[in-house]
Amino acid sequence: MASFLLEIGTEELPADFAGSALGQLEQLVRRDLAEARLSSSAIHIHGTPRRLALQLEGLPQRQPDRSEERKGPPAQQAFRDGKPTAAAEGFARRCGIAPAELEVRHTDKGPFVFARTLEPGRASSEVLAELAPTWIWRLQGRRFMRWGDGDSRFSRPIRWLVALLDAEVVPFELADCDPPVRSDRFSRGHRLRPQPLPIPSAGAYTATLAQADVQVERSARAATIRADLQAAAAAAAARADLPDSLFEELVDLVESPRLIEGAIEERFLALPPEVLSTVMRSHQRYVPLLHQDAPNDPLALGAKGQLLPRFLCISNGRAEAAATIQRGNERVLRARLADAEFFLAADRATASIDRRDQLARVTFAEGLGSLRDRVERLEWCTDVLLEQLNPWPSTTSSELHNHARRASHLCKHDLVSQMVGEFPELQGIMGAKYLLAEGEPREVALAVLEHYLPRGAGDALPSSEAGAVVALAERLELLLSIYAKGERPTGSSDPYALRRAGNGLLQILWDRRWSLDLVALLNRCCGHWAALFPDFAITSPALANELAEFLRQRLVSLLEEDFPDDGDIVQAVAGEGLHLERVLADPYDARRRALLLVDLSLEGKLAAVQAVVQRASRLAEKGTLPESVYSPEGVVDAALFEKNSEAEMLQAVQALAPFATGTDPNRYSQLANGLAANAPTLDLFFDGSDSVLVMAADPAVRANRLNLLAVLRNQASVLADFTRLRSREYSSPEKSKKLKDLQE
């Protein structure tokens, strides 16, 4: 068995491509090896900023031979008087054999001609020489480039190739590069070791590069970096401020990781901690150090007590250059923080309320006015939400309403600040801190900070009620304005992040457990937007319906993420075709119902509920009772009953009626349990010794029984549309008896 090595040597790759290309390469290799009839006992994918590498172990020297049997034309068409016809000769030619080698066999459809072909296996080196270039050119990434006069495109110019099968070079050429690149055995070591590095054999690859200061195995490099950072933080009695995204980037930025520690001047700790962290993490790829017991105060005005005046970084340099690298990093960081110091002083010289007026000079979007116009629309949305939500106790609602309104008035002022102009990721954060420093209530400042939350999937949600209301208003205003303008998210294009806005709106409602009638809210808002933008010629009902359908789709998407194995339940609760009023009159209510049905399914109780509802629903469709009737009163006449089972069914639906129309938080579970408990009652109604024929000859009796079943169907529809649920195992006592009788 042999080992194979392919190394693609490049100029420095972007960290995001270096990480993603490894997974792509492994998928390509696994698929193509299977198609090429080559097995491998192990596949290893490596990557550094200057190379992507593939190692295969346990390869055979050759492909196995492939024997194939092919069926041709009927024998009577293939041979005449014992001689092959044109049909036989053409079939033989396509199979690569002589006509004399054809066989005639009898089949169910008569005698046919068959050909047996044998394709000898090719040498593995020959197959790999064909596959390797395709693996390179099929890698995908952002912002690929051309170089020189060549037509090839890759993340960065390809400068060398190593291809070895054991110790032998596997020859191939990338002719479209400039200059063309041919495979050989010469790699490159660390950037500071420029001379070519011969690789003696595929199996010696990682050891040879290690001697040249390259830690090519990504997992080993990641372990080294994490261990070094943790040890340095522990030695300083601190915690490394190291998000996963920064850690992954550090792993893909270096090939010879070395820890460097640096110092920060004490005066810079007067800056907000987020400013220091943003400069260090996002702009310089340094790792800030937090005090072990640092308070988690998002409104802190200074970093003293939260950050140590030190930082860590991962260098790609040689050990002898550590002191020079440290001084260079400290000098760059000092300049960046001095700039931030200047921006902070300049911003503090202007009152936040004055910056709000400056928003009038900044266009929000074509046709939608300025950022100040947007803030005024956002304030209107906040007022409407406060009216419709009213989630707070009466003793404190006035104060909290004032906080939300004040926050919405000032929430965008920092967009014209110098600090946010330099560091856009600090929007909201700096605005909140400036307001607190100017004496605004802490609740107002926190709401300004939190109205941007969540910023994306998995992000934190607003922790304060005022912040949650303004966050809802911000997303609502964005959806209304962009939809009114006529733009929509399409496919992967969503420049205004409308899907994220819709997701955030629903997630906030779920997190706060707030009931909000989105249909009524959208109808009111779309009327207001039509008056604000007469040039858009908005049809309010049509716009409201379109936005409602968009939010229903977002609700389905979020539920499917939460319950990936229960897509039928999600569709039964919020799927396409259901009344939007039922789904969006209370999105939190929709999630509660989905969660209940998923729990019932996991507990094995949903099948019993389905058995009751689906059987009743199939017959109820033959009746005329509206779906809005949840009580048998006035629609079911007990005087028309002919069997006791009908009376028992009436008692059952009467008992369920309060749960279908009430407001008790536990009514859904009570309704579901009641439906399951009445499974035997329905079985007796249909199949028991006292069963009835629903489609009776007497029209009055038939309509009465259909109404009885329709009431039960309507009560169950409060939970979900049970016709959309996939079948689940359920065995009623009556069915179990019948099955036992049949088995005996």
Structural class: alpha+beta
Count every helix, treating DSSP H or I runs of 4 or more residues as helices: 28
- Measured on Cα atoms, how large is the radius of gyration? 36 Å
Portion of residues in beta strands equals: 5-15%
Query: Poorly predicted ranges (pLDDT <50, ≥5 residues)?
Result: 730-744
Global shape: flat
- Report the mean per-residue pLDDT as an integer: 91
Helical fraction equals 40-55%
DSSP strand tally: 18
Main sheet attributes: strand count, strand direction, barrel closure: 7 strands, mixed
| First-last Cα distance | 60 Å
Task: Provide a brief overview of the structure.
This protein has 744 residues and is an alpha+beta fold.
Structural description of this entry:
The chain is an alpha+beta fold and 744 residues long. It contains 28 helices and 18 strands. The strands form five sheets. Strands 1, 2, 3, 9, 10, 11 and 12 form a seven-stranded mixed sheet that branches. The longest helix is centred in the middle third of the chain and has 27 residues, at 322-348. The radius of gyration is 36 Å and the shape is flat. It starts with a strand and ends with a helix.
Q: What attributes does this structure have?
A:
13% strand, four-stranded antiparallel β-sheet, alpha+beta, seven-stranded mixed β-sheet, 18 strands, flat, 744 residues, disordered C terminus
